[in-house]
Specification:
The complex is a heterodimer of chains A (about 160) and B (about 625).
Chain A lengths: L1 E7 L9 H11 L10 E5 L3 E5 L8 H5 L5 E3 L6 E3 L9 H5 L6 E2 L6 E2 L9 H5 L5 E7 L6 H13 L8
Antiparallel strand pairs in A: 1-8, 2-3, 4-5, 6-7
Chain B lengths: L7 E6 L4 E6 L2 H5 L4 H12 L13 E4 L13 E6 L6 E6 L3 H7 L4 E5 L6 E6 L2 E6 L8 H11 L6 E4 L2 H4 L7 E3 L3 E3 L4 H7 L2 E7 L9 H17 L1 H9 L5 H6 L21 H7 L1 E5 L9 E5 L9 E3 L3 H8 L7 H14 L3 H16 L18 H13 L3 H5 L2 H9 L9 E2 L2 E2 L9 H9 L12 H4 L18 H15 L6 H7 L1 H12 L5 H21 L11 H5 L14 H15 L10 H6 L3 H7 L2
Classes of the chains: A alpha+beta (about 160), B alpha+beta (about 625).
Chain lengths: ~160, ~625
């Protein structure tokens, strides 16, 4: 089985956070990056990693929720957190292998990518076309640290380390 | 708050270890817009006359504007203080993500005064603000400082503004480093932080920024994105960064070479954006909410400098640490750039100072004894990079050079002041004067000393239409005072928003004014915007006058008046002293400043709503 999710090419991400800005504008009506459902993390020496939900096939977040607040949308396959059922316990935030669920900074709820009901705002707004909404296999993903390591090997390797 | 501002000022007294919040009185901000303008007002009010820039009584202001951290793309912040290099007001701009995070934490301005007993950093976590020990960061470079603070607070998204070893050692052109590769670089604000024993300010903010009329604002901001996207000039900026200008500049005799002895460089192609694209760049980099992504991450993959990783090289750095030092080895300049960022040194002043030292060395004014055996000839990039390390440590010759070219040339004498390339102590940037005379006026009258970012009249020298619809003769002085004044007033207002230079052309002043009004509910129009810029410019002039600046300081290095360009399309050109003086006279007349002294007249200040300033100044 395949499904569509938000997929980021981190080589193309330059860290402008326009995705965070428009995500928060769509979901919160404000420029509010710490309430964004997609997040960019800066890493030394100048790499950026975008973290967003993979919409796992077997979502550990769903299992971790003792209140049944997390369900899968049949149409988009998006895993959704129902605000009215969420108690803000943070279990899903803890267990997410991609660290792609966040606590809302002011409301006591967890937030995550809902695929904007099949029309993700971040995909439309990324000026570099680094974010796609496309079919992706349900498989195990890498952590941000592993992505950075791969990126560094790919982009930053030089003949010898030093230059003093 | 809901009107473009976060709504609070954070006052920090490091001597008393006191932190006090106060509400931002937006009606007071309105006359100065924010950013540069309001920070200038704060500096005027909150420092005593003739304050020693490196004393506890000086203040340092982190200033954002009403558009910073809003949906408006490409905004920045500035850091304002009295400069230990020029003795003037200094405002140093920086993108990255720090200013935006500061507003998300709830603060539009931070005002820091006093001096901590021990090295500390300021930790702002929304409304929880602490002065934390930084003894463990003593001597650490800027990259490591940023990383260590993030590790300590276990959050990669914290934003850090910090100084490196050069700031701790009070190098007069030490900078404040942000997001690894973004610098509030000019005028020695890093030394002011160092003098306060303040290693860093770290911030995490989790509030939204709201505006008065969200619907209108969103529509205008979307237009601004569209304008940036469609701008042809920004295509070259996206692709080659500021390095796009290198070859053009050298061809036009504007590229300072070997301490401004020439302005066309035979090695320019090696330092161009095109060369960087081929040899160095692996990806681009962006500031918060900016679709331009003008930054480029450079990796030196081979040569003695292999392993160098830095964002850049910006045009100005290629000019000062490249051509001006006679260096055309791109990897060597990338390495020098990385050293300066890590150590916390302004690449412009560092390059300008070393270029001056190289000329002294070639003329026998500095000898092997002074340089500890370093062959400090033009083009010797190994010696250049050794010297950068010495400056940051204030070691040997580095201790002299850490003072900047003005003080260093005064100290060693022997005619070296004739080729000390500075205005008011701030080393000149990377745009020549003899082939663009209006830049001479712009540098001589810039508020923070030799700076190209307060007005860019070179564009009119080279054929752009003036704001009053005319075309000017390149080498004539005619009309140059008007365009310089016009651009200074406009930029002062734009820098109060705080807008970024690279976006302003695409977004346009009219749209910025509409954005400002939609954010704040104010009723600015073009006339009021320009008048506010003029008010800000005059307030800063009054500050500089209070601190001792006079007409005789509004001048240029003798080389510009006396030594003809040796090569290139402007070969043989000088800026004749009488031409310069004519421009200055016209400029003062247009400004309403006294011709003999350069002091703003009482009437002029009064007319601009600065009567209280005029009164204090005439005391």
């Amino acid at each position: 089985m395949t499904h569509k999710a938000v997929v980021v090419d981190n080589k193309k991400c330059n860290g402008c956070r326009i995705c965070e800005i428009f995500c928060s504008l769509k979901h919160e009506g404000k420029v509010f990056p710490r309430a964004s459902r997609i997040r960019i993390f800066p890493y030394f020496p100048g790499l950026d990693v975008t973290v967003v939900c993979y919409q796992c096939e077997i979502p550990s977040c769903m299992k971790s929720c003792s209140n049944g607040a997390i369900t899968r949308n049949e149409k988009t396959n998006a895993i959704l957190i129902h605000e009215n059922l969420c108690t803000g316990c943070g279990a899903c935030v803890e267990i997410c292998p991609a660290h792609a669920i966040f606590m809302h900074p002011t409301k006591n709820i967890a937030i995550k990518c809902d695929l904007c009901d099949g029309d993700p705002e971040c995909v439309k707004r990324c000026p570099e076309g680094a974010i796609e909404y496309r079919v992706t296999p349900f498989d195990a993903r890498k952590s941000a640290e592993e992505i950075v390591k791969d990126l560094a090997t790919l982009l930053l390797t030089s003949e010898k380390v030093g230059g003093k | 708050m809901g009107e473009g501002f976060a709504g609070k000022i954070l006052n920090v007294d490091l001597s008393e270890r006191k932190i006090v919040e106060e509400p931002l009185e937006t009606d007071k901000v309105e006359e100065y817009i924010g950013g540069k303008g309001f920070a200038a007002r704060l500096l005027w009010e909150k420092t005593p006359a003739n304050v020693d820039p490196l004393s506890p009584e000086n203040i340092i202001i982190f200033a954002t504007g009403p558009l910073t951290a809003t949906l408006c793309p490409s905004t920045r912040m500035c850091i304002v203080t009295k400069s230990p290099l020029s003795g003037t007001f200094v405002d140093s701009y920086v993108g990255g993500h720090f200013g935006h995070e500061l507003k998300f934490a709830g603060y539009d301005f931070i005002i820091i005064r006093g001096k901590s007993e021990k090295l500390v950093y300021l930790w702002i976590d929304d409304e929880n603000v602490e002065i934390e020990d930084a003894g463990w960061l003593l001597g650490k470079d800027t990259f490591e400082t940023e990383e260590r603070i993030r590790e300590k607070h276990k959050d990669r998204t914290i934003r850090v503004a910090c100084i490196g070893p050069a700031g701790e050692k009070l190098v007069r052109y030490a900078l404040v480093n942000i997001d690894l590769y973004r610098q509030a670089a000019r005028g020695g604000i890093g030394a002011v932080m160092g003098s306060k024993n303040l290693k860093a300010v770290a911030v995490r903010g989790s509030n939204p920024i709201e505006v008065k009329d969200p619907e209108k604002f969103e529509q205008l901001a979307l237009e601004a994105y569209e304008a940036i996207d469609r701008n042809e000039s920004l295509y070259t900026m996206k692709r080659w960064g500021t390095g796009r200008s290198v070859i053009f500049s050298s061809d036009q005799c504007l590229y300072p070479t070997r301490n401004y002895q020439a302005e066309t460089f035979e090695g320019a192609e090696n330092l161009s954006g095109e060369a960087m694209e081929r040899k160095l760049w692996v990806k681009r980099k962006a500031c918060f909410n900016c679709p331009i992504h003008c930054g480029h991450l450079a990796v030196v993959k081979s040569s003695d400098y292999a392993g160098t990783i830095v964002e850049g090289i910006e045009y100005e750095t290629t000019a000062l640490l490249g051509a001006d030092c006679g260096v055309d080895d791109l990897a060597a300049v990338a390495y020098a750039n990385m050293l300066c960022d890590k150590l916390g040194l302004d690449t412009l002043s560092t390059g300008g100072t070393i270029a001056w030292a190289m000329e002294c060395y070639e003329r026998g004014i500095l000898t092997d004894k002074d340089t500890d055996g370093l062959k400090l000839n033009f083009g010797n990039h190994k010696a250049m990079n050794e010297t950068i390390l010495k400056i940051a440590k204030r070691e040997g010759l580095g201790n002299l050079l850490a003072e900047g070219v003005k003080r260093a040339s005064e100290k060693i004498g022997k005619g070296s002041d004739k080729f000390a390339m500075h205005v008011k102590g701030l080393e000149l940037p990377g745009w020549g004067i003899r082939a663009a005379p209006s830049m001479g006026l712009a540098y001589a009258t810039a508020d923070r000393g030799g700076c190209h970012q307060r007005a860019w009249p070179i564009t009119y020298d080279l054929g752009s239409k003036t704001p009053d619809g005319r075309y000017l003769e390149r080498y004539s002085t005619e009309g140059k005072a008007f365009v310089t004044k016009h651009d200074q007033d406009l930029v002062a207002a734009l820098y109060s928003l705080v807008a970024c230079d690279f976006a302003t052309g695409a977004i346009g002043t009219g749209r910025y004014i509409n954005l400002l009004n939609a954010a704040t509910g104010w009723t600015y129009n073009m006339e009021r915007f320009m008048e506010t810029g003029e008010r800000i410019w005059n307030l800063i002039r009054a500050f500089n006058i209070r601190e001792g600046i006079r007409k005789e300081d509004d001048t240029l290095p003798p080389r510009i008046f006396e030594e003809p360009l040796p090569s290139g399309i402007a070969k043989g050109r000088i800026l004749p002293k009488e031409d310069f003086e004519k421009m200055i006279r016209e400029y003062y007349e247009l400004r309403g400043w006294e011709l003999e002294t350069g002091i703003p007249t009482y009437e002029k200040l009064k007319k601009l709503g600065l009567e209280d300033v005029a009164k204090q100044l005439s005391h």
